Amino acid sequence: MNEYIFYTSEGYTKPPRQDMDVDNCQVLGRAFGDNEIIAKNNLFKDNPWIEDCGYNPNKIVTLQIVN
Description:
Order of helices and strands: EEHHE
Number of domains: 1
Strand order of the largest sheet: 2-1-3
Oligomer: single chain
Strand content: 25-35%
Structural class: alpha+beta
Radius of gyration: 13 Å
Helix content: 10-25%
Number of helices: 2
Number of strands: 3
Shape: elongated
Largest sheet: 3 strands, antiparallel
Distance between the termini: 12 Å
């Protein structure tokens, strides 16, 4: 089974100086699957907060982790 990491450039984060927003990529999680599609389905199943927060599944980037 393969491992994948998922990230997006949607949203922003708050730095220690709270008066600023930082545009950057955010790692949403890692998941296992026989392929990218199965792993992404597992990611959403195990992390319902991703959809609850409004992240667009079509804008999520997937990379296979190779050991």
